[in-house]
Write a structure and sequence with these properties.
Elements lengths: L4 H11 L4 H13 L6 H14 L3 H12 L21 H12 L35 E3 L8 E3 H12 L3 E4 L6 H14 L7 H24 L14 H14 L4 E6 L4 H7 L5 H9 L19 E7 L2 E7 L9 H16 L7 E8 H6 L1 H9 L10 E7 L8 H4 L16 E5 L3 H18 L3 E6 L17 H9 L3 H11 L5 H20 L33 H12 L9 H14 L7 H14 L3 E6 L14 E2 L6 E2 L12 E6 L5 H13 L3 E6 L10 H8 L2 H5 L6 E5 L14 H7 L6 E3 L4 H13 L6 E5 L14 H4 L6 E2 L11 E5 L3 H12 L4 E6 L1 E3 L3 H8 L7 E9 L5 H9 L7 E7 L10 H16 L9
Parallel strand pairs: 4-6, 4-7, 7-8, 8-10, 9-10, 11-14, 11-15, 15-16, 16-18, 17-18, 20-21, 20-23, 23-24
Antiparallel strand pairs: 1-2, 3-9, 5-6, 12-13, 17-22, 19-21
Helix pairs in contact: 3-4, 5-6, 6-7, 8-18, 8-19, 9-16, 12-23, 20-21, 20-22, 22-27, 23-24
C-alpha cells in the first residue's frame, strides 16, 4: 500500500534500527545499481551524496553515526563465533513474516501500489545473508521439521504468508485462536493443487459470472446493474462457502449484501431464473398493484434451497436499500431469531454471511456498531463470515481519501477478528480462504473477514466514465485480462482445460442465455409474497381485534409467580416494595400502575406460550426505575429474570437485553429479528424517544417502507419515551411528527397510550393479532408515576385497546368546547380543569394517531353536535407534534358550522426549552388558552 508524504519523509528514521550490516548491504547495492532499491532508500542515499559531494566515506560514516543509537547491542555482536543469538535469528524472521507477511503478499491484481519497505523481513536485518541460506536453524513452532535449512524456512514462510493470501492475525490476543490460524496457514503451504474436477468447477463458476455480466451489458445497453466484473471470484467463493458450511451441519445461511454483484449472486448462487431477471430488465412483467411501490431489481431479496454433501441448505438473501451497510445488523437479527426458533444453542445450524464494499465497510458507522454486537450475550450468533469485495475505489474516491487505515478491513480489528486478504485474480486462493473462514467460524464461533482485493471494471454504474477521475487506474484495468481469461490460461497451461473445451463451455452458456431471452412465452416473475413459510396464516391487511382481556384469577396467579422470589434472594428494599405493591394491585387493593401493567402483559403472553423479546439501553431495570425485569441479589450480585418463571413450553420465552450504547445497529438487529420471527413480540426501547433519531435510516428504509417496497411484514414495537417535563430538547420529544409523515398505505401504527390498561391491551394485541404492522409507541415518562393515569383491575380483565377514549365526566348538553389531545397533556388539562371548576369543556383522548380512528372519533364527537369550538391541544410547538397531521384529519369529521382550532407552543427549531421555570410558564399559557373563555389567539 502507498504511504502518505509525511510517512515517506520519516521513513529513514524508522529504519535505522535495522542494524549496521543491513545498511552496509543497502549502500553497496545502491552503489552498484541505484534503481534496484526502493524509492525511499534511493532518495536517502542520494541526499547523503549531495550533502558530501563525491566523498562517499564521510557520507557513509554519517549514516552509521546517525544509526548507532537505535541499533541494538545484539545486532552489533559478531555473527557466529561467540554469537549466542545466531541460532535464534531464524525465529525472529519467522515472527516477522507472521506479522508483516501480508504487506509483501501478491494481493493486488492491478499492482497499483508499490510494496512498502519492511526491513524486518530482510535477512540483513538479523545479521544474515545468502551465505546463511544453507545453514540449519531451529524453526520453533513453524509447522514441519523442527530444524531445517534457512532456505527451506524462507520458502515455507513465503508460501504461507506472502502468496495470494495475506493474513492478518497477530493482533488477536487469544492464543488459541491465533495459533489455530497460524497452524492452518502454515499447513496450507504444503497443500497439493486442487484436483482437476474442482478446478474445472471453479472455472465454470467464474465463466458463468463473467458471461452473465457481459450478456447483460450487450443486451440491455445503458441499464444499471452494478456489475461484479473484476470481482467474479466472489461467485466460486460463495459456492465453496455454502458447500463447506452444509457439510459441517449448517442448515440455513442468511446472506446480506449491497447492490454491486447482487444480480450475479441471484442468478449464479441463489438460483433465480434467468427468465425472471431478463424480464425485470425489460420491465414488461410489471402489473399495477393495489398496494406498495416496489423497488429496483438490484435491491431485491430471494430465497432458495441448495444441495450440499451434508444436506439441503436454505439460502435467504435479505432485501437491501441503497444505504449499503444498513443490512448488516438486520441479517444478524434474522440469524439470531432463527437460531432461537431451532433451539440452536451451539449456533451451527444457522449462519450469517455478509458481503461488503470496501469504502462502505471502512466508512459507515453501522459496521463498527454491528461488529461490537458480535460477542454480546443478547446478540451473539456464533460468528459471521464477512467478505469485503474490495474494488479499491469508492464511487470516485481513492482509498487514501476514503479511510485513515492501511486496509479497509482494519475496523474489524476492534473485535480481534482475523483478516484474510486474498487476490481476486486467483479463484483457488479465494476458495481456500473461504474454507479457512468456515472452519474458523465453526471452531471459535466468532467473526472472520475475507478481503477480496479486486477491481471494478466499469464505473460506479455501467453508464459512468471512471477514467475521468481515475485515469491511471482505468488505463491499467483496460489493459488487464479478465478473471476468466487469467484463470483459463492458468488451467490450459496446467493441462486441466483445452482452449477448445473452454470455448465450448462459454458458447453453450451464451446460447442458453440467448434462448431464454428470445423465448416468446416467458413466464412472468413470481409475485412477491411474504405470507409463506413461517408467515403463513398472518395478514397484511384488515382489522383483527382479538380479545386481550385476562381473568383476574390468572393475573393474580401470574403476579405472585413473577414477584415472589426465593427466600434466599436478597432483593433491594426499593424493588421489594415495588414487587409487593404489584401483588396488591392484581388483588384489586389499589390502582394498577404502568410497571405492573407492562409486567402482566409479558407474563400473560409468555404463560400462554408466547415469545417476548425486549432490548435497549438499560431495559432490564428500566431508565425510569419502573420495570425491574432483571433484579440483582444485593449480597452476591447475581441477576435473576423473574418473568422466566412463567415460561410454558418449548417456544415460550421472555428475553430482556441491556444493549450496548447503540441505536442504529440495535434497532436494525431487532427489525431483522421481527421479520424472521412473526410469533415473537419484539420491542426496541429507546432510552429517550429522541434517541431513535440516530437510527432514522432503519426507520425510513425498513420499518416504514419495507412492506411497500418488498412486501416484508414486521410486528416490531418502537418504545419511545415522550413528554414535556422541562428536561430540555433532547429528553422531551420522540418526534412523533416524523413518524406521522412516514405513515401511508396502512404501513404502521402510531400510538400514545394514556393509561396502563391501554398499554396492557396494546402489547397483547400486537402479538395475538394475525395482522403484523410495526407499532410506534410514544411512551410515558412522568406518567409512570401519575396516579391519575392508573387503571382499575377490571380494565385488564375485559375489552381491548381503545383508539379513542371519550369524555366520561362532562355532560354533552352543557359542553361549549371540545378539546382533542393525546398522551400526557390530557392529565395537565384534566388537573387544570378540576382546579378551576370548569364543567363545560370536554376532553377526548386520541390514543391511536395512525391509522386514524375515523369511526371511533366520529362516534365520540357525535354527542357534541351543538358545539362550535373543537380544539386540538398539544405540548409540542406548532411545527412539531401531531397538529399538522391532525388538522386535515379532524376537519373531515366536523360539521359545516364547526371550526377546528389548535393550542400549541409557538413554532420552534428545537423541540423543547432547557429551563424548568420557562417550561412551567409555557405550560401555564397553554392551559389558559385551552381552558379560556375565548378562542381568540388560537391557530385556525
Amino acid at each position: 500500500m502507498s504511504r502518505s508524504e509525511s510517512e515517506q519523509t520519516a521513513l529513514p528514521d524508522e529504519l535505522f534500527a535495522a542494524g549496521s550490516s543491513y545498511l552496509e548491504q543497502l549502500l553497496d547495492q545502491y552503489r552498484q545499481d541505484p534503481g534496484s532499491l526502493p524509492a525511499e532508500w534511493g532518495a536517502y542515499f542520494a541526499s547523503l551524496a549531495e550533502e558530501q559531494g563525491d566523498d562517499a566515506p564521510p557520507a557513509h560514516q554519517q549514516m552509521l553515526t546517525r544509526m548507532a543509537p537505535a541499533a541494538s547491542a545484539a545486532q552489533q555482536q559478531p555473527l557466529r563465533e561467540g554469537d549466542v543469538e545466531y541460532p535464534s535469528r531464524a525465529m525472529y524472521l519467522i515472527h516477522a513474516y507472521r506479522v508483516h507477511g501480508h504487506l509483501h503478499a501478491n494481493l493486488d491484481p492491478l499492482h497499483l501500489n508499490p510494496r512498502p519497505v519492511t526491513p524486518e523481513m530482510e535477512l540483513a536485518y538479523y545479521g544474515l545473508s545468502e551465505a546463511d541460506l544453507d545453514q540449519v536453524f531451529p524453526a520453533g513452532d513453524l509447522i514441519g521439521e523442527r530444524n531445517r535449512p534457512l532456505r527451506d524456512i524462507l520458502s515455507h514462510l513465503k508460501k504461507s504468508y506472502c502468496g495470494c493470501i495475506g493474513p492478518e492475525f497477530r493482533h488477536i490476543t487469544d492464543s488459541a485462536r491465533k495459533h489455530w490460524i497460524q497452524s492452518r496457514l502454515e499447513r496450507n503451504a504444503f497443500r497439493p493443487d486442487e484436483d482437476d474436477d474442482t478446478r474445472r468447477h471453479i472455472f465454470g463458476r467464474i465463466m458463468h459470472a463473467e458471461e452473465f455480466e457481459r450478456f447483460l451489458h450487450t443486451r440491455y445497453v445503458g441499464q444499471k446493474r452494478f456489475s461484479l466484473e473484476g470481482g467474479e471470484s466472489l461467485i466460486p467463493m460463495l459456492d465453496a462457502l455454502i458447500q463447506n458450511a452444509g457439510s459441517n451441519g449448517t442448515r440455513e445461511i442468511i446472506l446480506g449484501m449491497a447492490h454491486r454483484g447482487r444480480l450475479n449472486v441471484l442468478a449464479n448462487i441463489m438460483g433465480k431464473s434467468l427468465a425472471e431477471i431478463f424480464t425485470e430488465f425489460e420491465g414488461s412483467q410489471l402489473k399495477e398493484e393495489a398496494h406498495g411501490q416496489g423497488d429496483v431489481k438490484y435491491h431485491m431479496g430471494f430465497s432458495s434451497d441448495v444441495r450440499t454433501p451434508g444436506g439441503v441448505v436454505h439460502l435467504s438473501l435479505g432485501f437491501n436499500p441503497s444505504h449499503l451497510e444498513i443490512i448488516t445488523p438486520v441479517v444478524l437479527g434474522s440469524v439470531r431469531a432463527r437460531q432461537c426458533r431451532r433451539g440452536d444453542k451451539a449456533r451451527r445450524e444457522v449462519m450469517g454471511v455478509l458481503v461488503h464494499g470496501d469504502a462502505a465497510f471502512a466508512g459507515q458507522g453501522v459496521v463498527a456498531e454491528s461488529l461490537e454486537l458480535s460477542k454480546l450475550n443478547g446478540f451473539r450468533i456464533g460468528g459471521t463470515i464477512h467478505i469485503v469485495v474490495n474494488n479499491q475505489i469508492g464511487f470516485t474516491v481513492n482509498p487514501h481519501d476514503a479511510r485513515s487505515t492501511t486496509y479497509c478491513t482494519d475496523i474489524a480489528k476492534i473485535i480481534h477478528a482475523p483478516i484474510l486478504h486474498v487476490n481476486g485474480d486467483d479463484p483457488e486462493a479465494c476458495c481456500q480462504a473461504v474454507e479457512i473462514a468456515v472452519d474458523y467460524r465453526n471452531t471459535f464461533h466468532e467473526d472472520i473477514v475475507i478481503d477480496l482485493i479486486c477491481y471494478r471494471r466499469h464505473g460506479h454504474n455501467e453508464t459512468d466514465s471512471p477514467e475521468v477521475t481515475q485515469p491511471l487506474m482505468y488505463r491499467r484495468i483496460a489493459e488487464h485480462p479478465t478473471v476468466e481469461q487469467v484463470y483459463r490460461d492458468r488451467l490450459i497451461a496446467a493441462g486441466v482445460l483445452t482452449a477448445e473445451g473452454a470455448d465450448a463451455m462459454v458458447e453453450a452458456y451464451r446460447d442458453c442465455m440467448d434462448k431464454v431471452r428470445r423465448a416468446k412465452n416467458r413466464p412472468a416473475p413470481n409475485v412477491l409474497n411474504s405470507l409463506q413459510g413461517r408467515w403463513e396464516g398472518f395478514l397484511s391487511e384488515g382489522m383483527d381485534e382479538p380479545d386481550t382481556g385476562v381473568s383476574a384469577d390468572l393475573l393474580g396467579m401470574l403476579v405472585r409467580k413473577v414477584h415472589r422470589l426465593p427466600a434466599e434472594f436478597s432483593l433491594h428494599p426499593r424493588v421489594e416494595k415495588i414487587y409487593e405493591a404489584r401483588i396488591g394491585m392484581m388483588d384489586g387493593l389499589e390502582a394498577v400502575d404502568w410497571g405492573c401493567a407492562e409486567s402482566m402483559a409479558y407474563a400473560s403472553l409468555v404463560y400462554e406460550g408466547g415469545w417476548v423479546r425486549i432490548s435497549g439501553e438499560d431495559s432490564g431495570r428500566g431508565t425510569f426505575f419502573h420495570r425491574h425485569a432483571v433484579v440483582y441479589d444485593q449480597q452476591t450480585g447475581k441477576s435473576m429474570i423473574p418473568l422466566r418463571q412463567v415460561e410454558n413450553g418449548t417456544l415460550s420465552h421472555f428475553i430482556v437485553v441491556d444493549s450496548m450504547l447503540s441505536e442504529m445497529a440495535v434497532l436494525g438487529y431487532e427489525y431483522g429479528y421481527s421479520v424472521a420471527e412473526p410469533r415473537a413480540l419484539v420491542i426496541w426501547e429507546a432510552q429517550y424517544g429522541d434517541f431513535a433519531n440516530v437510527a432514522q435510516v432503519v426507520i425510513d428504509q425498513f420499518i416504514a417502507a419495507g412492506e411497500s417496497k418488498w412486501k416484508r411484514l414486521s410486528g416490531l414495537v418502537l418504545w419511545l419515551p415522550h413528554g414535556y417535563e422541562g428536561q430540555g430538547a433532547e429528553h422531551s420529544s420522540a418526534r412523533m411528527e416524523r413518524y406521522l409523515q412516514l405513515c401511508a398505505e396502512n404501513n404502521m401504527q402510531v400510538v400514545y397510550p394514556s393509561t396502563p390498561a391501554q398499554l396492557f391491551h396494546l402489547f397483547r394485541r400486537q402479538l395475538l393479532s394475525k395482522v403484523r404492522k410495526p407499532l410506534i409507541m410514544m411512551a410515558p415518562k412522568s406518567m409512570l408515576r401519575q396516579k391519575l393515569s392508573f387503571s382499575s383491575l377490571d380494565e385488564f380483565t375485559a375489552g381491548t385497546f381503545q383508539p379513542v377514549l371519550p369524555e366520561q365526566e362532562i355532560v354533552p348538553a352543557a359542553t361549549r368546547r371540545v378539546l382533542l389531545c393525546t398522551g400526557k397533556v390530557y392529565y395537565d388539562l384534566l388537573a387544570a380543569r378540576n382546579e378551576r371548576g370548569i364543567s363545560d369543556i370536554a376532553i377526548i383522548r386520541i390514543e391511536r394517531l395512525y391509522p386514524f380512528p375515523v369511526n371511533q372519533l366520529r362516534s365520540a364527537l357525535a354527542q357534541y353536535e351543538g358545539v362550535r369550538e373543537v380544539c386540538w391541544v398539544q405540548e409540542e410547538p406548532e411545527n412539531q407534534g401531531a397538529w399538522l397531521y391532525m388538522n386535515n384529519q379532524i376537519r373531515k369529521l366536523l360539521l359545516t358550522e364547526q371550526k377546528v382550532y389548535a393550542v400549541t407552543r409557538p413554532e420552534a427549531a428545537a423541540p423543547a426549552v432547557g429551563s424548568i421555570k420557562r417550561h412551567q410558564m409555557e405550560l401555564s399559557v397553554l392551559l389558559d388558552q385551552a381552558l379560556g373563555k375565548s378562542v381568540e389567539g388560537m391557530l385556525v
